[in-house]
Amino acid sequence: MKGRPFARRLRKAAVEIIKGRGKGGHVLGCFEGRQTMIPVHGDIDYGPQFLRRICRQLGLDPNEVI
């Protein structure tokens, strides 16, 4: 899955996406007091393990987001 569709799915799961807080192709994701950087680079496909790790850092169930 690419970064932008993943960020859209996170947004649907009530994660706040802050565009101005990341460097380059990254945005900041905030959910219930937790924060993590989310890469949104152009055509790069991210593996499922990497996407699950981001979900866990935010305290989300990866099966509901991915």
Structure described in brief:
This protein is an alpha+beta fold and 66 residues long. Helices cover 38% and strands 23% of the residues.
Count of discrete alpha- or pi-helical segments spanning 4 or more residues: 3
One letter per element, helices H and strands E, the order comes to HEEEHH
- End-to-end Cα distance: 9 Å
Strand content: 15-25%
Kindly report the spatial arrangement of strands forming the biggest sheet. 1-2-3
Superfamily (CATH H level) name: Hypothetical protein
Structural class: alpha+beta
Q: Residue ranges: pLDDT <50 for 5 or more in a row? A: none
Largest sheet: 3 strands, antiparallel
Number of β-strand runs: 3
Bulk shape: globular
Rg, Cα atoms, Å: 11 Å
Rounded mean pLDDT is 93
Relative helix content: 25-40%
Class in CATH? Alpha Beta
What is the CATH T-level topology? Metal Transport, Frataxin, Chain A
What number of structural domains do the residues give? Answer: 1
CATH architecture label: 2-Layer Sandwich
